[in-house]
Amino acid sequence: MELMPVEKIKSLRKEMGYKNAKELSELLGFGSSTIPRWECGSTPMSKSHGLMVEAFLTVPSFREFILSNNNKSYGEING
Question: At what angle do helices 47-58 and 6-15 cross, to 10 degrees?
């Protein structure tokens, strides 16, 4: 399985209204500089991170889950 190209991630991110990569990184629980480093080419994207970003950007139910649980602790989500 091939990961979504970084250019496509950047394009979809902007289309969805996330003006900077740091915001999306933090929303997904990554380090604040993870997606910005991919976008500038300084760090390669891992498969697991890439799949999560792709799912967030392309699967509405996954995106809704992340957004609705973003401010909850692990116990509140799984409890």
Answer: 30
Return d(Cα 63, Cα 19) in angstroms, integer: 17
Residues 10-37, mean pLDDT to the nearest whole number: 93
Q: pLDDT per residue over 52-78, tens digit each?
A: 999 999 999 999 999 998 865 444 444
The length of the chain, given as a count of residues: 79
HSE of 68 in the Cβ direction (CA atoms, 13 Å)?
7
Both tokens of 32, joined, read 């604040």
User: With 0-12 CB in 10 A as exposed, 13-18 as middle and 19+ as buried, what is 76?
Assistant: exposed
- Region for residue 41 given its phi and psi (left: phi exceeds 0; alpha: psi -120 to 50; beta: otherwise): left
DSSP letter assigned to residue 45: P
Residue 22 contacts residue 33 (beta carbons within 8 Å): yes
